[in-house]
Amino acid sequence: MKRKKSDAEEKSAKHRGDPGPKISLKVLADYLGLSPATVSLVMNRSPVANSIPKTTQDQIFAAARKLNYRPNFFARSLRTQRSFTVGVMVPEVSEGYATMVLSGIEDHLLQEGYFYFVASHRHRQDLIDEYPELLLARSVEGLIAVDTPWHSKLSIPVVTVSGHNEMKGVTNIVLDHGCAAELALEHLANLGHRRIAFIKGQEFSSDTEARWNAIIEAAARLGLVIYPELTTQLRGDLATPELGYRVTRRLLAKHGQFSALFAFNDISAIGAIRAIREKGLRVPEDISVVGFDDIQGAAFQNPGLTTVRQPLRKMGKIAAETVLIRMSGDRGHLKEIMVEPELVVRESTCAAP
Question: For the segment 88-99, what is each residue's pLDDT rounded down to a tens digit?
Fold first, then answer.
């Protein structure tokens, strides 16, 4: 026989924030004065729900939050014979590029009522090859690959972020790297910088080649010389300032005469600033530093980091929107969706000494 909770237990449950008894769809519908069918269409985000007024949809979601109504996704999957699940592949989950893109993906998938699996491959080719099949085995209906070389042919919609590979059935979300390079180099040139050091990305990064080619073209248009001895490349597969710190120390030890440095990303720029200071030089008075990405911590560095902003959360959101549209059966997808960068000028750059 089930024991009735005491008053003390009831108060304790309320204090802990326990949700209490589960609210049924009929109770929610009665509360709203709507039919269960209407509420079900909206809560399950059925395509037919698009014909229901937006104000009514908003009222339904607001009431669901107030009454703590949770749809039964397992029953929904059985009823529709769909998993409502998306697979996401990222190099790693750590501060920086991939995490910010992932946050945009999460925002949209959660909003739309989709579950998702996240798999980190650490740039290992065996995992990049195996994970798509593993995710398919878990009944994902679409896949998003972030900063991941893509060569697989799958039976489900695939969207890549900075994939740079033309594959049939794949939509790629990319940054306008030509514009990004122009923004950064023009900013430095206008400040009088002519000897500029460059930190290239790792060979395995999807953006490395595209961004470097864009820098070469932008430098030629602006009349800037790229000195081979002032060009270095990140080594290692971890997103840590240590990598930028190491290569900048080597640059300063061998070829210390440069007035500006353009780093592959903000993480390496932060490491570079540490190395410059350890050399007894000042940022930006002796060497200006420009990063790339505009991660959350860039504005709070000392000095605040001048950087080329990628709209990373927006790119993740676009990727999630695109994969869901394609999962709905839309076959008129674009091969490429390009987003625009923005130069954010802070305190790490100034006029050349």
Answer: 999 887 767 888
